[in-house]
């Protein structure tokens, strides 16, 4: 594969959601993405975490995109810090809800609190938008520190027995709960993070009695593409808006639709009847589904790809081959971004897009596309790097290592 030289591009400011950008502590972006044929440099030191915490540690593995163990939810104490209040509970949502209520006085007075869950499987009632919520109306938003809810004995020791829905949860960071092969959906919640978790889907449904805002998915991993006639992840509004969402250090494999299906499957789709404002996709890797890797919608705005990799065309097949019975791309290979008709909804900084990119971006800085005719940007410009269309499996392995269970257990340490 030919070596690609670095190119100069116009530097422009990218307007990103200020709350999430200031609060998370991911690996700082490089000067520009690593071109094909250029060895990846060592991961730089992690930027300081949110003020008042001493977490996360430095990345455990060298990866440009996806989980590294170096991202942590905002305003969330690390599991080894000194806490003002600690509660240990059985693996029961009732017990967790009671513990969150017990520590409210501590966190509302500026203290730090942790709920440690003993090993076990947490019950669920499904992740549909109308499924019964396993937690409902718990916590308070806007405290100095979120409550940390974490497995006592390490990642993977607390699992989900079924998919779940959270509703009206506030001011809590759930870290290290192993969802897979189940899914989760967050509804009508504020100031909530779900982090360091392997699961089938991590969704948001803004369809309840109050808006959903300030949600973070941090190093959440959907590791395998599957034969499935629905989107892999979906953020939807129905009667309520969705504001300020972070997808930080995540890895999202796609959904391949069945042969003969008329489904439209995307890996991360936005949709609904109310606005979605302020979506930050940072340090993440998204692999395309049958139709696209990412798709916005009419009411979306302030979408920022910041140091992320979006893989469409046919290159995602190097990592996630088509399963038996899947549609063989009868309508053509999937786009990296299908924002057809969109104008100034999206911005890109220090990112890589392989496959078609449709839509006019508000800005592009230090961002490469495999297209010889790049998409338009109102400010700045994309760097055309056609050799990305020939990216090989070794390049993908270097930029975004496969997040196996062994890798995840190595990088996610909560004890």
Keyword list:
about 425 residues, mainly beta, 25-stranded parallel beta sheet, two-stranded parallel ribbon, 5 helices, globular, disordered N terminus
Write the layout of secondary structure elements.
Layout: H1 18-23, E1 85-89, H2 93-102, H3 104-108, E2 113-117, E3 120-122, E4 135-139, E5 147-151, E6 158-160, E7 164-175, E8 183-187, E9 190-198, E10 201-206, E11 212-222, E12 226-227, E13 233-237, E14 242-248, E15 251-252, E16 255-256, E17 266-272, E18 276-282, E19 285-287, E20 292-295, E21 300-306, E22 309-311, E23 335-343, E24 346-349, E25 352-354, E26 357-360, E27 363-365, E28 368-369, E29 383-384, H4 393-399, H5 405-411
Parallel strand pairs: 1-2, 2-5, 3-6, 4-7, 5-7, 7-8, 7-9, 8-10, 9-11, 10-13, 11-14, 11-15, 12-16, 13-17, 14-18, 15-19, 17-20, 18-21, 19-22, 20-23, 21-24, 22-25, 23-26, 24-27, 25-28, 28-29
């Amino acid at each position: 594969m030919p070596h690609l030289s670095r190119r100069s591009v116009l530097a422009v400011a990218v307007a990103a959601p200020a709350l999430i950008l200031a609060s998370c502590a991911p690996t700082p972006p490089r000067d520009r993405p690593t071109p094909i044929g250029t060895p990846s440099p060592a991961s730089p030191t992690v930027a300081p975490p949110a003020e008042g915490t001493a977490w996360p540690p430095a990345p455990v593995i060298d990866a440009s995109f996806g989980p590294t163990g170096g991202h942590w939810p905002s305003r969330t104490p690390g599991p080894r810090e000194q806490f003002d209040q600690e509660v240990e509970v059985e693996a029961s949502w009732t017990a967790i809800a009671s513990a969150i209520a017990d520590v409210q006085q501590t966190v509302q007075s500026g203290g730090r609190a942790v709920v440690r869950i003993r090993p076990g499987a947490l019950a669920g009632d499904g992740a549909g938008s109308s499924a019964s919520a396993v937690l409902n109306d718990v916590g308070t938003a806007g405290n100095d520190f979120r409550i940390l809810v974490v497995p006592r004995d390490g990642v993977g020791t607390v699992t989900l027995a079924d998919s779940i829905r959270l509703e009206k949860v506030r001011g809590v960071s759930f870290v290290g709960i192993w969802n897979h092969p189940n899914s989760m959906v967050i509804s009508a919640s504020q100031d909530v993070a779900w982090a360091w978790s392997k699961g089938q889907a991590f969704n948001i449904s803004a369809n309840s009695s109050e808006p959903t805002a300030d949600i973070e998915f941090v190093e959440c991993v959907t590791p395998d593409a599957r034969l499935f006639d629905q989107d892999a992840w979906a953020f939807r509004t129905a009667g309520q808006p969705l504001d300020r969402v972070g997808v930080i250090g995540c890895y999202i494999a796609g959904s391949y639709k069945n042969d003969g299906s008329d489904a439209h499957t995307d890996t991360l789709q936005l949709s609904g009847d109310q606005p979605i404002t302020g979506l930050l996709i940072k340090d993440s890797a998204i692999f395309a589904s049958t139709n696209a890797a990412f798709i916005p919608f009419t009411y979306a705005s302030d979408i920022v790809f910041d140091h992320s990799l979006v893989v469409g065309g046919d290159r995602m097949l190097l990592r996630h081959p088509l399963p038996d019975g899947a549609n063989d791309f009868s309508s053509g290979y999937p786009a990296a971004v299908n924002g057809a008709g969109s104008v100034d909804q999206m911005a890109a900084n220090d990112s890589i897009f392989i496959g078609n990119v449709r839509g006019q971006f508000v800005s592009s800085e230090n961002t490469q596309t495999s297209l010889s005719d790049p998409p338009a940007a109102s400010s700045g410009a994309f760097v055309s790097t056609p050799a990305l269309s020939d990216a090989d499996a070794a390049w993908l392995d270097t930029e975004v290592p496969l997040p196996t269970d062994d890798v995840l257990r190595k990088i996610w340490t909560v004890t």
